[in-house]
Amino acid sequence: MAATPLATRLIRRTRLAALAVAATVALFALMAGIGSSIPRNAGWQAPAHGVTIMVETNGVHTALVLPLVSEQVDWRRVFPVQHVAAAGRPYTHLAISWGEREVFLNTPTWWDLRPGTVARIAGLGGDGLLHVAHYVRPAPSAQLRPLVLRPEEYRRLVAAIGRSLPPPEARHYPGYGAQDVFYDAPGRYTVRNTCNQWTSDMLAAAGVRIGWWTPAAGGVMKWVPETPDGNS
């Protein structure tokens, strides 16, 4: 049975819409690949000694894992351990990241991410939220890569993170488990200013060599070797 003219037009428009979406995604991926390959602080090299931090990824989202206490900052004063359910553990590090409020609070797994949420963020953006997880002696891995900073570079990193910190009266919210928590935070999440862009912006402020525009996790992690000496 032949399709009616109306059905033919609907099929054609559906195909064109699908092609437009595919072209947009491909263009975004291309621009992200180019933007993340342009270095900031191109002459930076990691020192042999200094403050060791880690850059963490789950393949989609990145975070900065920092020593809980150092000469530069005592994060316990900023993020009290009493804010997490498992407050009695001997924590040594914090994982700090920034992201979109609704995705953080209402999307415990990526399977819970709704197309409408993605469309809203792509078109309008969303409010920022800070995620802080408490760790006990995290071990380096392909997903948790050490990075050594000079003391002055770490001070600059702390200062940059300070500009994303919640005000003293800000609310905090239960995290995904017993060791993490969310905080209200400044900033607007957009396709140009993503969680991974926040990570690279923090590192760039410290003076670290990192990509210029890194909307995807891979754009951040390709600048961080899997071991301090750069060998896989």
What is the strand tally?
Answer: 9
Secondary-structure element pattern, one letter each: HEEEEHHEEHEEHEH
Q: Which blocks of ≥5 consecutive residues have pLDDT under 50? A: 228-232
Order of strands, main sheet, comes to 6-2-3-4-5-8-7
Structural class: alpha+beta
Shape: globular
Q: Main sheet, how many strands, which sense, barrel?
A: 7 strands, antiparallel
Gap from first CA to last CA: 60 Å
**Mean pLDDT across all residues, rounded?**
86
Question: What is the helix fraction of residues, given as a range?
Answer: 25-40%
Radius of gyration: 20 Å
Strand content: 15-25%
Secondary structure tally, helices: 6
Describe the protein in words.
By secondary structure, this protein is of the alpha+beta class. The chain is built from six helices and nine strands. It has helices at 5-37, 101-106, 115-123, 151-162, 195-206, 217-221; strands spanning 39-40, 51-57, 62-67, 93-100, 126-135, 144-149, 172-174, 180-189, 210-211. The strands form two sheets. It has a seven-stranded antiparallel beta sheet with strand order 6-2-3-4-5-8-7. A hairpin with a 5-residue loop joins strand 7 (172-174) and strand 8. The termini are far apart. The model is unreliable at 228-232 (pLDDT under 50).
Kindly summarize this structure in a few lines.
The protein is α+β, with helices and mostly antiparallel strands. Helices cover about 35% and strands about 25% of the residues.
Give the arrangement of secondary structure elements.
Blueprint: H1 5-37, E1 39-40, E2 51-57, E3 62-67, E4 93-100, H2 101-106, H3 115-123, E5 126-135, E6 144-149, H4 151-162, E7 172-174, E8 180-189, H5 195-206, E9 210-211, H6 217-221
Antiparallel strand pairs: 1-9, 2-3, 2-6, 3-4, 4-5, 5-8, 7-8
Helix pairs in contact: 4-5
